[in-house]
Every structure is written in C-alpha cells, then in structure tokens.
Amino acid sequence: MVFVDGQPLPLFAALFGYGLVQMAGRQASWPVARWVVVKRCFWMIVLGGLHAYFLFEADILGTYGVLGLILVSTMVWRDQSLLALAAGWMVVHLGYILLSSFGIIRVDGVLPEGIATWALHTVVWPAAVLVPMVLGMWAARHRMLTEPERHVRFLRNTALAGIGFMILGCLPLALKVAQVVDTVPRPLAVLHTISLLPGGLGYAALMGWISARVKKPNLLMVAVAATGERSLTCYVLQSVSWTVLFAYGGLGYEIGVAQASLIGILTWLTTVLLALGMHLAGIRGPLEVLLRFLTYGRRKKTRPAARPQPVPVLTGQSR
Questions:
Q1: Where do runs of H (alpha helix) occur along 214-298?
Q2: Helix, coil or strand: residue 217
Q3: What is the distance in angstroms between the CA of the first residue and the CA of the last residue of the chain?
Q4: CA distances (Å), 262 to each of 67, 89, 274, in order?
Q5: Which of 2, 165, 223, 226 could form a disulfide with 279 if both were Cys (CB 3.0 to 4.6 A apart)?
Q6: What is the mean pLDDT of the chain?
Q7: pLDDT tens, residue by residue, 4-41
Q8: What is the pLDDT of residues 194-236, one digit of tens each?
Q9: What's the average model confidence in pLDDT over 83-105?
Q10: Rounded to whole angstroms, how far apart are CA atoms 298 and 267?
C-alpha cells in the first residue's frame, strides 16, 4: 500500500511520454515524427482493446495511446508551455480528487462491464496521467534519464522529495488496510491518491540517480533492463498468468491480499527471468516486434543512435 499501490500508473505515464519524445527525435523531420507517434498510439489503442477483450478489461495500453494522440501536438511547445499545461491540469485533477472523495462528485455504478468498461477507462484514465506524461516529455528534452550524470542533483532531490512525500501520504491508509488502526480521517485517506504522482515521478528519478552512479551494471540490473525492453510482452504475459490462475485455476476469490501479492511477485519474477533469457539469447519481445512493424512497416526508419538527437522542434524552443 505504501510503495506499490497505484504508483506504477504515473511512473509508466512519465516513461511513456519520455519514450515518445525519444522516438520522435530519431526521425528526420517533425511531420514524419508526428505521423510515427500517431501510428504507434493508434496501434496501442487497438492492441489494448484486444487485450481488454480477451484477457484484462482494465487495460492501460489504450489509455496511453489516447493520451499520446491528444498530446502529440504539444511535443513542439516550448518548455514553459508544457510546464504550464502540467500545472494547470494538476489543479483541475486535484480539484476532482477532492470533490469526488468528499462525495460532491459521484461515479459509483457508472461503469458498465466488459469491453465497455475498457472503453470508458480509456477515455477517463488519461485525465489521471496527463500530468506525469507531460512532465516525462519535458524531462526527455533535457535527457534526464538518458544522460543522468548531467542531472544528478535534480534527480536526487526529486527522488528524495517524491518518495518521501509518497511514504508520508500513503502510510495512513496503509495502516488501516493492515488493520493497525480502525479508522483514518478522510483528508488523510485522500492523501493516498494525491501521493501517487510524486511517488511515481520519484521512482523514475531514483532509477536515473542510480544509473548515474553505477559504472558497471550487475546481473540484476541487466535482467530488469531486459524486462523493460520487453515491457509490452511481459505486461500481457502477466494478464495470461492472472487468467490461467484465477479464472481457470480455481483460485477465484478464495485467497487474501497477501497471497495475491505473493502470486504477483512470483509472476513478475518469472517474467524477469524470461526476459533475461531472451536478452542473453538475443531474442526481442514478440509484441515489441509486432508494434514496431505496425508503426514503421518493413523498412526501418530510425537512425541507430544510442542517444537520439531530437529534431529541432522537439527541443522546447520552437513555440
């Protein structure tokens, strides 16, 4: 509840925004870059719909795809405009959290089931992750994670402040879930939701801070990196695992939170080992290969650069 619950959503949104700018920066011009981003986001929505229909209705691929289509034009905004967008939407989103938490806005019973649930999530969830995605786009312009040695102080301060705020904000509700306390005042419970954004950004900054200080990655780091390079494949494999274990394996609702968490950890470790084996064997993730083919076609249109140089319109100085 303190270190995991909810934090991956803003974390992955920030990394997705970062990755889009990297991908666009490899293209020869802004029109080409925009078209590449649009195609990738479109196919993410399609794959997310298939994932939701066959495996997991609370899919997140469609959310990021929709948000990418919405924000593609902002990739050529100036830094100040991007940060102003993030700040303005943060105020709107915090207002919604407070109003809904105190019962002024109610959404209970609105969501239908099945694929319709995914469709509504795909429209609603982008509002919750727009800020971290925009901040990820801003960070990519300054190569904060690809050249972390240039931003050590900023990454360190962001990691300490973000994760520290997350711990303080998530601890009250975690104590209630763990049955250490009977009740938690509503304002403290609301802090759990508010703390997700700084926590997710803090985790991203922590990884950058670590990578800036590590000269030679160990086997664990290589395995985690290999998983990240095959994140789409591993994400869907986890859904396959849930379907097999819970829908067809007879577990259903018969286990508690602790047992379910253990299954989640073991499933993740399995994907890490699988990704490491594929890395050592030189095998790319099949879904990554598919998405790349759908985006670029048969011809490779990117320049093979370890540290891509963004096209001028993506540097934050154009508008």
A1: 219-229, 231-242, 257-281, 286-296
A2: coil
A3: 41
A4: 32, 36, 18
A5: 226
A6: 87
A7: 888 888 999 999 999 999 999 999 899 999 999 999 99
A8: 999 999 999 999 999 999 999 888 999 999 999 999 999 999 9
A9: 84
A10: 33
Joined tokens for residue 212: 């800036």
Amino acid code (one letter) for 201? L
- pLDDT, residue 232, reads 95
Position 315, amino acid: T
Of 300, 20, 9, 256, nearest to 138 by C-alpha is 20
Q: How many Cβ atoms sit within 10 Å of the Cβ of residue 181?
A: 12
HSE of 26 in the Cβ direction (CA atoms, 13 Å)?
Answer: 17
Residue 93: which H helix or E strand, with range?
Answer: helix 79-101
Cα separation values, 23 from 26, 27, 66, 145, 288, Å: 6, 7, 17, 14, 14
DSSP code at position 102: T
Res 315 pLDDT > 80? no
Per-domain residue ranges of the chain: 217-303
CA distance 123 to 121: 5
DSSP3 helix / strand / coil % (the chain, rounded to 5): 75, 0, 25
Residue 319: the pLDDT is: 46
The pLDDT-based confidence of 257 (bands split at 50, 70, 90) is confident
Find where tokens 């991203």 sit.
Answer: 204
Specify whether the CB–CB gap between 90 and 73 falls below 8 A: no
What value does the mean pLDDT take over residues 171-177? Answer: 91
Closest CA to 8 of 203, 151, 288: 203
Backbone φ/ψ region at 40: left (φ over 0), alpha (ψ -120 to 50), beta: alpha
Q: Biggest alpha carbon distance in the chain? A: 60
